[in-house]
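User: Reviewer 2 asked us to show a designed sequence for the structure in our supplementary figure. I'm pasting the structure tokens here. Could you produce the per-position amino acids so we can include them in the response letter?
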């Protein structure tokens, strides 16, 4: 114990310093003397100073001023100036004050017990959520417990969704207790449903149905993404409630419904300040992936972006996920493998966030038209060789790609070739490509053919070239913007049978040279360059067994306003044709068929890429774009040279590599 002496008059004061050694010691402040009814002290934490002193049983003339529990440390107790009430004698203030310090004889391991709310929910008041207040307390059986500290704290803004609140309290012996509960801030849709449930529980006869109808309409509008209409419908509901206040509704009921509805309106009206969506391509084929990405604001914890991917035939895919901390999101949809003509056209992706919907459209092409014989050999084949459609068989289905180049080169090494009735039925070696450019501000696509007509009976080869306008269906070639060194705009026999008659650029009287019945090589090449006036210029080349390329025709597109390039694309068709490149053995000109009797040849197709001629990454055996066909030709890939070996036999449509 520690004692201090005070013999001063009643109006004076004195101090005493003492030490506490053990945590949680009981400290009793006392006075020795007679009637110490109005003695107070200060300086000791947690000590009551309201002058309600009491006698200590068994200790005559010892008055307990108060007691408390203290942790280890040094403290100073001070006797205060007396403020005695009527009938109390200040001269009887204690002659001596002091403290008893009782160290605990047992260890306190009991944690404080916290009292926290049960789980509860609140309506949102803004897109950020709602300010939530609550009360948490703590008590300890042995000593004092600190005021609970909660995370998040009372008065914080809780985001829409469910948040766990954890509270902690520590007693004077360092024991910590915890307790938790959940606060759910409803979404705007859940808030409207909550108001509907409130009305159903209030037994509002006569007006419940009309209230229910108004709120259900607002809920439907919000869930469908029409936030503006939902707000208007909620305002109409508030007007209706105000009209019923004091009639079918008490003032308290009306005020609650109005306040709750206004909170929902504030949440919806504030909405996201920004929501965007983009896609990574404009044309898609079956099996292709489409990336939907964008940004939302504000970023609210627990709130998700909903994406809905739709095709024209009703095919849908959906995904829901949270944006990142910056509000960014992205998701990849994959088009189905059974994509057909019913899905062609325009697709759409909707992005929804906090009841706001934004959409973006994209074009869909089914990549249809590739012949499928189901692997069954056919005696009547299409033009056969190497074809790059910009398509390949992916892991699950047909997939596409595209590229552009300034040059295609094809070479046929023919060891043996014999055609039945060849005097009237020659064959053609065709290098077929698609050229894209802009004429008078409009994209134009031309089918460009470099052709060697091979007559095995006459042992002769004659060069031809054709350019077709495939911009919008089978259009006529316009002589005002296409001029050639040798060819003319003409109408061939089978083309002129239709209505309207289609004209093409054609040069049918090109150079001729002898065809050798033994091993020989024929090379064809098309290039596109620019004239000094910057017009696109198509150049046709050939080479016989010498291997030296010779130009035999060139065509200028005099109205073109941009550079031109040969293009391969598996994503689109023009005039019913695939945008492809090929080197094929085909039938005679004007759409005929040639029946092959003997054949031993190797075909190679290459395109210019980064200054080098390279074979296509993927290739097929039949060219469905050309009308000329052959029969009894078997096409076998040669790997790793990426060439095609042609021989007689039965074949089916297939991917070579």
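Assistant: Here is a per-position design you can include in the supplement:
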């Amino acid at each position: 114990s520690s004692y201090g002496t005070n013999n001063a008059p009643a109006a004076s004061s004195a101090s005493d310093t003492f030490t506490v050694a053990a945590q949680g010691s009981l400290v009793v402040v006392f006075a020795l003397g007679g009637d110490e009814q109005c003695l107070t002290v200060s300086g000791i934490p947690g000590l009551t100073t309201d002058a309600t002193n009491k006698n200590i049983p068994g200790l005559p003339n010892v008055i307990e001023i108060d007691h408390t529990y203290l942790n280890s440390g040094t403290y100073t107790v001070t006797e205060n100036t007396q403020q005695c009430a009527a009938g109390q004698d200040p001269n009887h203030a204690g002659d001596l004050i002091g403290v008893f310090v009782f160290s605990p004889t047992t260890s306190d391991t009991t944690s404080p017990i916290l009292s926290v709310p049960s789980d509860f929910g609140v309506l949102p008041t803004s897109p950020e959520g709602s300010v939530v207040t609550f009360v948490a307390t703590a008590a300890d059986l042995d000593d004092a417990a600190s005021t609970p500290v909660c995370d998040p704290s009372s008065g914080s803004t809780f985001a829409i969704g469910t948040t766990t609140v954890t509270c902690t309290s520590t007693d004077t012996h360092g024991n910590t207790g915890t307790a938790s509960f959940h606060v759910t801030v409803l979404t705007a849709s859940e808030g409207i449903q909550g108001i509907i449930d409130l009305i159903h529980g209030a037994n509002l006869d006569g007006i419940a149905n009309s209230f229910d109808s108004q709120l259900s309409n607002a809920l439907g509008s919000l869930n469908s993404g029409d936030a503006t209409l939902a707000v208007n419908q909620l305002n109409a509901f508030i007007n209706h409630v105000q009209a019923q206040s004091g009639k079918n509704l008490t003032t308290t009921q009306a005020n609650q419904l109005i306040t709750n509805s206004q909170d929902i309106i504030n949440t919806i009206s504030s909405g996201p300040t920004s929501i965007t969506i983009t896609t990574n391509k404009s044309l898609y084929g079956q099996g292709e992936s489409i990336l939907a990405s964008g940004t939302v604001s504000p970023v609210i914890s627990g709130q998700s972006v909903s994406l809905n991917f739709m095709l024209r035939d009703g095919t849908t895919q959906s995904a829901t996920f949270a944006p990142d901390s910056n509000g960014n999101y992205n998701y990849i949809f994959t088009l189905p493998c059974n994509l057909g003509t019913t899905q062609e056209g325009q697709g759409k992706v909707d992005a929804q966030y906090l009841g706001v919907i934004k959409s973006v459209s994209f074009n869909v092409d089914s990549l249809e038209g590739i012949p499928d014989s189901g692997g069954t050999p056919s005696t009547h084949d299409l033009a056969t060789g190497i074809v790059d459609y910009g398509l390949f068989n992916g892991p699950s289905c047909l997939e596409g790609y595209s590229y552009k180049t300034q040059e295609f080169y094809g070479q046929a090494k023919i060891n043996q070739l014999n055609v039945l009735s060849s005097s009237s039925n020659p064959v053609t070696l065709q290098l077929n490509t698609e050229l894209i450019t802009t004429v008078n501000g409009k994209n134009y696509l031309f089918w460009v053919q470099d052709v060697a007509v091979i007559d095995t009976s006459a042992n002769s080869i004659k060069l031809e070239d054709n350019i077709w306008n495939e911009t919008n269906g089978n259009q006529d070639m316009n002589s005002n913007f296409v001029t050639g060194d040798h060819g003319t705009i003409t109408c061939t026999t089978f083309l002129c049978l239709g209505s309207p008659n289609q004209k093409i650029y054609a040069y049918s009287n090109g150079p001729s040279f002898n065809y050798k019945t033994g091993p020989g090589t024929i090379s064809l090449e098309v290039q596109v360059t620019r004239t000094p006036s910057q017009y696109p210029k198509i150049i046709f080349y050939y080479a016989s067994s010498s291997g030296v390329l010779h130009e035999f025709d060139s065509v200028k597109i005099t109205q073109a306003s941009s550079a031109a390039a040969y293009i391969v694309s598996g994503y689109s068709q023009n005039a019913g044709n695939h945008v492809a490149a090929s080197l094929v053995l085909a039938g005679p000109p004007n759409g005929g068929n040639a029946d092959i009797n003997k054949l031993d040849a190797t075909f190679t197709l290459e395109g210019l890429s980064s200054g080098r001629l390279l074979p296509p990454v993927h290739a097929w055996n039949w060219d469905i774009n050309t009308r000329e066909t052959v029969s009894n030709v078997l096409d076998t890939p040669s790997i790793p040279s990426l060439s095609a070996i042609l021989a007689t036999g039965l074949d089916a449509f297939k991917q070579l590599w």
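For the response letter, you might also mention the following. The chain is about 10% helix and 45% strand. The helical segments are 188-201, 208-223, 227-244, 251-270.
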